[in-house]
Amino acid sequence: MKIIDVLNSGKVSVSCELFPPKAGGNFSPVVQAADAIAALRPDFMSVTYGAGGGTSQNTVAIASHIQNDLGITALAHLTCVSSTKDHVAAMLDRLKEEHIENILALRGDIPEGMDFPNPRQYRYAFELIDEIKERGDFCIGAACYPEGHVECKNKAEDLDHLKEKADRGCDFLTTQMFFDNNVLYSFLYRALLREIRLPVIAGVMPVTNQAQIQRICRLSGTSLTPKFKAIADKFGDNPKALKQAGIAYATEQIVDLIANGVRGIHIYTMNKPDVAAKIMQNISYLLEDTNGTN
Ligand code: FAD
Questions:
Q1: Is 101 marked active-site?
Q2: For 6-38, what is each residue's pLDDT tens digit?
Q3: What domains appear along the chain, each with residue ranges and CATH number?
Q4: Given the DSSP bridges, would you call strands 13-18 and 264-267 parallel, antiparallel or unpaired?
Q5: What ipTM score was computed for the predicted complex, to two decimals?
Q6: Rounded to whole angstroms, how far apart are CA atoms 261 and 26?
Q7: Least enclosed by CB within 10 Å: which of 142, 206, 216, 253?
Q8: What is the pLDDT of residues 93-116, one digit of tens each?
Q9: Residues with CB under 6 A from ligand 1
Protein backbone atom coordinates (compact mmCIF):
# COMPACT_ATOMS: atom_id res chain seq x y z
CA MET A 1 0.00 0.00 0.00
CA LYS A 2 1.19 3.50 -0.72
CA ILE A 3 1.56 5.67 2.35
CA ILE A 4 -0.05 8.62 0.62
CA ASP A 5 -3.29 6.59 0.44
CA VAL A 6 -3.16 6.07 4.22
CA LEU A 7 -2.51 9.79 4.74
CA ASN A 8 -5.35 10.78 2.43
CA SER A 9 -7.80 8.41 4.11
CA GLY A 10 -8.69 11.01 6.75
CA LYS A 11 -7.81 8.75 9.68
CA VAL A 12 -5.05 9.36 12.19
CA SER A 13 -2.14 7.16 11.20
CA VAL A 14 0.55 5.98 13.58
CA SER A 15 3.88 4.69 12.31
CA CYS A 16 7.02 3.41 14.02
CA GLU A 17 10.71 3.47 13.16
CA LEU A 18 13.43 0.83 13.23
CA PHE A 19 17.11 0.96 12.43
CA PRO A 20 18.76 -2.01 10.68
CA PRO A 21 21.77 -3.93 11.98
CA LYS A 22 25.17 -2.50 11.09
CA ALA A 23 27.06 -4.19 8.25
CA GLY A 24 28.05 -7.65 9.52
CA GLY A 25 25.84 -7.12 12.60
CA ASN A 26 23.33 -9.42 14.19
CA PHE A 27 19.89 -9.47 12.55
CA SER A 28 18.10 -11.38 15.25
CA PRO A 29 17.45 -8.54 17.79
CA VAL A 30 16.26 -6.23 15.01
CA VAL A 31 13.95 -8.88 13.56
CA GLN A 32 12.59 -9.55 17.06
CA ALA A 33 11.98 -5.82 17.56
CA ALA A 34 10.30 -5.60 14.14
CA ASP A 35 8.05 -8.56 14.95
CA ALA A 36 7.02 -7.12 18.31
CA ILE A 37 6.34 -3.64 16.91
CA ALA A 38 4.42 -5.12 13.95
CA ALA A 39 2.16 -6.92 16.44
CA LEU A 40 0.96 -3.46 17.55
CA ARG A 41 -0.37 -2.99 13.97
CA PRO A 42 1.04 0.45 13.18
CA ASP A 43 -0.06 1.89 9.82
CA PHE A 44 3.46 1.56 8.52
CA MET A 45 7.00 0.97 9.74
CA SER A 46 10.03 2.84 8.49
CA VAL A 47 13.58 1.52 8.34
CA THR A 48 16.48 3.95 8.49
CA TYR A 49 19.48 3.90 6.15
CA GLY A 50 22.94 4.05 7.67
CA ALA A 51 24.85 7.22 6.85
CA GLY A 52 27.29 6.37 4.09
CA GLY A 53 25.12 3.53 2.80
CA GLY A 54 26.99 0.83 4.75
CA THR A 55 23.74 -0.78 5.89
CA SER A 56 21.89 -0.40 2.59
CA GLN A 57 21.30 -4.11 2.04
CA ASN A 58 20.21 -4.48 5.66
CA THR A 59 17.67 -1.68 5.25
CA VAL A 60 16.15 -3.54 2.32
CA ALA A 61 16.24 -6.87 4.16
CA ILE A 62 14.44 -5.51 7.24
CA ALA A 63 11.96 -3.52 5.15
CA SER A 64 11.25 -6.64 3.14
CA HIS A 65 10.66 -8.68 6.31
CA ILE A 66 8.20 -6.03 7.54
CA GLN A 67 6.32 -5.82 4.26
CA ASN A 68 6.42 -9.39 2.96
CA ASP A 69 6.53 -11.51 6.14
CA LEU A 70 4.70 -9.33 8.65
CA GLY A 71 2.17 -7.74 6.29
CA ILE A 72 2.83 -4.15 7.43
CA THR A 73 3.55 -1.44 4.88
CA ALA A 74 7.27 -0.63 4.90
CA LEU A 75 8.89 2.72 4.27
CA ALA A 76 12.55 2.30 3.29
CA HIS A 77 14.80 5.29 3.93
CA LEU A 78 17.37 5.99 1.24
CA THR A 79 20.17 8.55 1.45
CA CYS A 80 22.18 9.79 -1.49
CA VAL A 81 25.04 12.08 -0.49
CA SER A 82 27.62 9.31 -0.11
CA SER A 83 26.21 7.29 -2.98
CA THR A 84 26.73 7.04 -6.70
CA LYS A 85 23.91 7.11 -9.22
CA ASP A 86 24.64 3.46 -10.02
CA HIS A 87 24.29 2.45 -6.40
CA VAL A 88 20.99 4.33 -6.10
CA ALA A 89 19.71 2.65 -9.28
CA ALA A 90 20.66 -0.76 -7.87
CA MET A 91 18.90 0.05 -4.58
CA LEU A 92 15.73 1.07 -6.40
CA ASP A 93 15.79 -2.20 -8.35
CA ARG A 94 16.19 -4.15 -5.10
CA LEU A 95 13.26 -2.29 -3.52
CA LYS A 96 11.11 -3.05 -6.56
CA GLU A 97 12.06 -6.74 -6.37
CA GLU A 98 10.90 -6.76 -2.74
CA HIS A 99 7.61 -4.98 -3.63
CA ILE A 100 8.49 -2.00 -1.45
CA GLU A 101 6.59 0.97 -2.82
CA ASN A 102 7.46 3.67 -0.27
CA ILE A 103 10.77 5.49 0.03
CA LEU A 104 11.88 8.34 2.30
CA ALA A 105 14.26 10.25 0.02
CA LEU A 106 17.05 11.85 2.03
CA ARG A 107 20.33 13.53 1.36
CA GLY A 108 22.02 12.19 4.50
CA ASP A 109 24.55 14.05 6.62
CA ILE A 110 27.70 15.05 4.81
CA PRO A 111 30.53 12.84 6.10
CA GLU A 112 33.37 14.72 7.75
CA GLY A 113 36.08 15.65 5.26
CA MET A 114 33.94 14.74 2.25
CA ASP A 115 34.69 16.70 -0.89
CA PHE A 116 31.28 18.39 -1.10
CA PRO A 117 29.83 19.31 -3.49
CA ASN A 118 31.10 16.54 -5.69
CA PRO A 119 29.65 17.08 -9.17
CA ARG A 120 29.55 13.35 -9.93
CA GLN A 121 27.34 12.63 -6.96
CA TYR A 122 24.15 13.90 -5.39
CA ARG A 123 24.18 17.17 -3.54
CA TYR A 124 20.62 17.51 -2.26
CA ALA A 125 17.61 15.31 -1.63
CA PHE A 126 15.60 16.85 -4.47
CA GLU A 127 18.04 15.25 -6.95
CA LEU A 128 17.29 11.86 -5.41
CA ILE A 129 13.56 12.56 -5.69
CA ASP A 130 14.03 13.23 -9.42
CA GLU A 131 15.91 9.96 -9.82
CA ILE A 132 13.32 7.91 -7.90
CA LYS A 133 10.49 9.40 -9.94
CA GLU A 134 12.29 8.51 -13.14
CA ARG A 135 12.91 4.93 -12.12
CA GLY A 136 9.57 3.72 -10.83
CA ASP A 137 6.14 4.27 -9.43
CA PHE A 138 7.17 4.83 -5.82
CA CYS A 139 5.40 6.84 -3.14
CA ILE A 140 8.08 9.30 -2.02
CA GLY A 141 8.46 11.02 1.32
CA ALA A 142 11.02 13.66 2.29
CA ALA A 143 12.34 15.11 5.54
CA CYS A 144 11.41 18.50 6.93
CA TYR A 145 12.66 20.49 9.89
CA PRO A 146 10.21 22.53 12.00
CA GLU A 147 13.15 24.42 13.56
CA GLY A 148 15.05 24.67 10.27
CA HIS A 149 17.79 22.30 9.13
CA VAL A 150 21.07 22.80 11.05
CA GLU A 151 23.03 23.78 7.94
CA CYS A 152 20.56 26.38 6.70
CA LYS A 153 21.10 29.96 7.74
CA ASN A 154 17.42 30.71 8.28
CA LYS A 155 14.02 29.06 8.30
CA ALA A 156 12.73 30.98 5.27
CA GLU A 157 15.53 29.66 3.07
CA ASP A 158 15.04 26.16 4.43
CA LEU A 159 11.35 26.40 3.47
CA ASP A 160 12.35 27.49 -0.05
CA HIS A 161 14.40 24.30 -0.31
CA LEU A 162 11.54 22.27 1.09
CA LYS A 163 9.24 23.80 -1.52
CA GLU A 164 11.68 22.57 -4.16
CA LYS A 165 11.33 18.99 -2.85
CA ALA A 166 7.54 19.35 -2.92
CA ASP A 167 7.64 20.72 -6.46
CA ARG A 168 9.84 17.82 -7.61
CA GLY A 169 6.94 15.55 -6.71
CA CYS A 170 7.44 14.09 -3.28
CA ASP A 171 4.15 12.90 -1.80
CA PHE A 172 4.49 13.58 1.93
CA LEU A 173 6.85 14.97 4.56
CA THR A 174 8.05 13.61 7.88
CA THR A 175 9.38 16.02 10.46
CA GLN A 176 12.51 15.99 12.50
CA MET A 177 11.68 15.47 16.18
CA PHE A 178 10.53 18.47 18.19
CA PHE A 179 9.68 18.80 21.87
CA ASP A 180 7.38 21.83 21.73
CA ASN A 181 4.25 21.26 19.65
CA ASN A 182 3.93 24.99 19.02
CA VAL A 183 7.12 24.70 16.97
CA LEU A 184 5.29 22.24 14.71
CA TYR A 185 2.10 24.33 14.49
CA SER A 186 4.12 27.41 13.53
CA PHE A 187 6.01 25.38 10.91
CA LEU A 188 2.77 24.03 9.41
CA TYR A 189 1.43 27.56 9.11
CA ARG A 190 4.62 28.86 7.47
CA ALA A 191 4.69 25.87 5.11
CA LEU A 192 1.14 26.63 3.98
CA LEU A 193 2.05 30.28 3.41
CA ARG A 194 4.91 29.00 1.24
CA GLU A 195 2.31 26.91 -0.63
CA ILE A 196 3.64 23.58 0.55
CA ARG A 197 0.44 21.60 0.68
CA LEU A 198 1.71 18.08 1.32
CA PRO A 199 0.58 15.90 4.22
CA VAL A 200 3.05 16.34 7.09
CA ILE A 201 3.73 13.46 9.47
CA ALA A 202 4.80 14.68 12.91
CA GLY A 203 7.89 12.84 14.21
CA VAL A 204 7.77 12.30 17.97
CA MET A 205 10.78 10.95 19.85
CA PRO A 206 10.18 9.26 23.19
CA VAL A 207 13.47 10.07 24.89
CA THR A 208 14.30 7.18 27.14
CA ASN A 209 18.00 7.52 27.94
CA GLN A 210 20.69 10.13 28.61
CA ALA A 211 22.76 9.25 25.53
CA GLN A 212 19.81 10.13 23.28
CA ILE A 213 19.50 13.56 24.87
CA GLN A 214 23.17 14.32 24.25
CA ARG A 215 22.95 13.06 20.65
CA ILE A 216 19.85 15.14 19.95
CA CYS A 217 21.51 18.32 21.18
CA ARG A 218 24.74 17.62 19.28
CA LEU A 219 23.34 16.58 15.90
CA SER A 220 19.80 17.66 15.19
CA GLY A 221 19.62 21.24 16.41
CA THR A 222 16.33 20.39 18.15
CA SER A 223 15.61 22.67 21.12
CA LEU A 224 14.82 21.17 24.47
CA THR A 225 11.93 22.84 26.31
CA PRO A 226 12.26 23.94 29.97
CA LYS A 227 9.79 21.18 30.88
CA PHE A 228 11.90 18.59 29.08
CA LYS A 229 15.13 19.92 30.62
CA ALA A 230 13.61 19.66 34.10
CA ILE A 231 12.78 16.01 33.44
CA ALA A 232 16.29 15.32 32.13
CA ASP A 233 17.86 17.10 35.14
CA LYS A 234 15.73 15.31 37.69
CA PHE A 235 15.65 11.79 36.24
CA GLY A 236 18.68 11.71 33.92
CA ASP A 237 20.64 9.39 36.20
CA ASN A 238 17.77 6.98 36.80
CA PRO A 239 17.18 4.97 33.60
CA LYS A 240 13.82 3.54 34.67
CA ALA A 241 12.45 6.89 35.80
CA LEU A 242 13.75 8.68 32.69
CA LYS A 243 12.15 6.07 30.45
CA GLN A 244 8.79 6.44 32.21
CA ALA A 245 8.99 10.23 32.00
CA GLY A 246 10.07 10.11 28.33
CA ILE A 247 7.10 7.92 27.42
CA ALA A 248 4.75 10.23 29.36
CA TYR A 249 6.20 13.31 27.63
CA ALA A 250 5.85 11.78 24.16
CA THR A 251 2.31 10.61 24.96
CA GLU A 252 1.36 14.11 26.05
CA GLN A 253 2.76 15.52 22.81
CA ILE A 254 0.78 13.01 20.73
CA VAL A 255 -2.46 13.66 22.61
CA ASP A 256 -2.08 17.38 21.92
CA LEU A 257 -1.19 16.76 18.25
CA ILE A 258 -4.24 14.57 17.65
CA ALA A 259 -6.50 16.98 19.55
CA ASN A 260 -5.27 19.79 17.31
CA GLY A 261 -5.96 17.95 14.06
CA VAL A 262 -2.59 16.44 13.16
CA ARG A 263 -3.31 13.24 11.25
CA GLY A 264 0.10 11.60 10.84
CA ILE A 265 2.10 10.57 13.91
CA HIS A 266 5.49 8.92 13.49
CA ILE A 267 7.07 7.52 16.65
CA TYR A 268 10.84 7.29 16.65
CA THR A 269 10.66 3.94 18.43
CA MET A 270 14.32 3.10 17.87
CA ASN A 271 13.92 -0.72 18.02
CA LYS A 272 12.17 -0.53 21.39
CA PRO A 273 8.90 -2.46 21.22
CA ASP A 274 8.14 -1.89 24.92
CA VAL A 275 8.24 1.87 24.40
CA ALA A 276 6.09 1.59 21.27
CA ALA A 277 3.61 -0.68 23.09
CA LYS A 278 3.21 1.71 26.04
CA ILE A 279 2.59 4.70 23.79
CA MET A 280 0.16 2.78 21.58
CA GLN A 281 -1.71 1.68 24.68
CA ASN A 282 -1.76 5.26 26.03
CA ILE A 283 -3.41 6.56 22.85
CA SER A 284 -5.62 3.59 21.97
CA TYR A 285 -8.91 5.26 22.95
CA LEU A 286 -7.92 8.46 21.14
CA LEU A 287 -7.42 6.45 17.96
CA GLU A 288 -10.68 4.61 18.54
CA ASP A 289 -12.46 7.93 19.03
CA THR A 290 -10.92 9.50 15.92
CA ASN A 291 -10.80 6.52 13.58
CA GLY A 292 -13.77 4.56 14.82
CA THR A 293 -11.75 1.37 15.37
CA ASN A 294 -9.05 0.24 17.73
P1 FAD B 1 18.08 18.24 1.86
O2 FAD B 1 16.61 18.39 1.69
O3 FAD B 1 18.89 18.06 0.64
O4 FAD B 1 18.59 19.51 2.68
C5 FAD B 1 19.91 19.54 3.23
C6 FAD B 1 20.34 20.98 3.45
O7 FAD B 1 20.58 21.60 2.18
C8 FAD B 1 19.29 21.86 4.14
O9 FAD B 1 19.98 22.78 4.95
C10 FAD B 1 18.60 22.56 2.98
O11 FAD B 1 18.03 23.80 3.37
C12 FAD B 1 19.76 22.74 1.99
N13 FAD B 1 19.35 22.75 0.59
C14 FAD B 1 18.45 21.96 0.00
N15 FAD B 1 18.33 22.24 -1.31
C16 FAD B 1 19.21 23.25 -1.55
C17 FAD B 1 19.59 24.01 -2.71
N18 FAD B 1 18.99 23.78 -3.90
N19 FAD B 1 20.53 24.97 -2.58
C20 FAD B 1 21.15 25.22 -1.38
N21 FAD B 1 20.82 24.53 -0.25
C22 FAD B 1 19.87 23.58 -0.32
N23 FAD B 1 19.89 10.35 7.88
C24 FAD B 1 20.42 9.15 7.55
O25 FAD B 1 21.64 9.04 7.33
N26 FAD B 1 19.62 8.02 7.48
C27 FAD B 1 18.28 8.07 7.70
O28 FAD B 1 17.60 7.05 7.61
C29 FAD B 1 17.69 9.33 8.04
N30 FAD B 1 16.35 9.45 8.27
C31 FAD B 1 15.81 10.68 8.52
C32 FAD B 1 14.42 10.79 8.70
C33 FAD B 1 13.83 12.02 8.98
C34 FAD B 1 12.35 12.12 9.14
C35 FAD B 1 14.66 13.17 9.11
C36 FAD B 1 14.04 14.50 9.45
C37 FAD B 1 16.05 13.08 8.93
C38 FAD B 1 16.62 11.84 8.64
N39 FAD B 1 18.01 11.70 8.43
C40 FAD B 1 18.55 10.48 8.12
C41 FAD B 1 18.90 12.86 8.58
C42 FAD B 1 19.10 13.62 7.25
O43 FAD B 1 19.75 12.77 6.33
C44 FAD B 1 19.96 14.86 7.54
O45 FAD B 1 19.24 15.77 8.31
C46 FAD B 1 20.58 15.54 6.32
O47 FAD B 1 21.57 16.46 6.78
C48 FAD B 1 19.60 16.31 5.45
O49 FAD B 1 18.84 15.47 4.71
P50 FAD B 1 17.62 16.07 3.80
O51 FAD B 1 17.10 14.95 3.02
O52 FAD B 1 16.70 16.87 4.62
O53 FAD B 1 18.47 17.05 2.83
A1: no
A2: 999 999 999 999 999 988 889 999 999 999 999
A3: 3-291 (3.20.20.220)
A4: parallel
A5: 0.99
A6: 40
A7: 216
A8: 999 999 999 999 999 988 777 766
A9: 48-49, 51, 77, 79, 104, 106-109, 124-126, 143, 149, 151-152, 158, 161, 164-165, 174, 176, 203
